[in-house]
Amino acid sequence: MHYPYTATATLLALLLYLVVTMAVGRARVKYGIKAPAVTGNEQFERTYRVQMNTVEQMVFFLPALWLYAVLVNDIGAAVGGLIWVIGRAVYAAGYIADPTKRGTGMMISFLAQIGLFLGALFGVVRALLG
Amino acid sequence: MHYPYTATATLLALLLYLVVTMAVGRARVKYGIKAPAVTGNEQFERTYRVQMNTVEQMVFFLPALWLYAVLVNDIGAAVGGLIWVIGRAVYAAGYIADPTKRGTGMMISFLAQIGLFLGALFGVVRALLG
Amino acid sequence: MHYPYTATATLLALLLYLVVTMAVGRARVKYGIKAPAVTGNEQFERTYRVQMNTVEQMVFFLPALWLYAVLVNDIGAAVGGLIWVIGRAVYAAGYIADPTKRGTGMMISFLAQIGLFLGALFGVVRALLG
Prior knowledge:
The structure is a homotrimer.
Chain A: H1 4-30, H2 42-71, H3 74-97, H4 103-129
């Protein structure tokens, strides 16, 4: 395995995602929202939106993370990945408490994603020219 | 290609996902739910929730599956992947029939995901220490 | 890096996704839809559905793209990926203007996905038999 640090960051991201996913299951029971409904209680909706937004970010984050790892280096990707996980945890805690407080965490993980994306872009241009 | 069995399991997962996705398109026509609406008919909502939940699980499943394949082995990942696909098929059939019957399939695929995750975690710890 | 063209196509897909994602953030402000709500204004809902549908397609597209790249070849995967990105851009523009006009772009990216999937399936069968 050539990318142990990126693999570690990926597992941390999956762990965070597991926590926000299981929170939705608990909120469904706690607030009595019966499937297939996903609305009807503000607190349930916050929990669900945290999961959905995390999904929406992961489909960008994971490919950018691994392209960075392969095209640039393992340790840099892992640092970006770790910042992303921290940002997402801050986002989730903020959103559950008050949706207007989701900005800080969102910005941290967004910047991590953009950094990974730009690094991967630099790496692929170098690979195409090299 | 060093991971032919994991690749096969991945293609089976994509095939299952294709089936649940196309079911949403058909349900949209059948129950007259015009885009961008995703609510308004219980049966449509069930079909749509099956797709969304499959998306929500895939973003965890696919990275865990491939980390397991690379860090542990191909055949074990493929077995976990096959169990996941079976669980998801059981889940989809149960949910469409009656949302309260979605538990069994959900549990099967959830356990497969957790098994792959824990195996990958073991693999990465071994790689970091080794 | 053995797959520079597929990596380039992936970065283009992420760029397209970034554009449709940021459009949702802008639409949230423009139409005054406060989190956690995702309904309440037709134009916001269109923008949000474009993002969600792109997520729904990406979880199929990215694995199919990379399995094709590894199992068949880099350049073919990249061509399929480029067609997918074009289809998604046409889809987004059509949907925002009028949801009934989303069919053309959807069909282009769907056919690209199916082509990548079938190519990868051929590749894996060849790998298992070879």
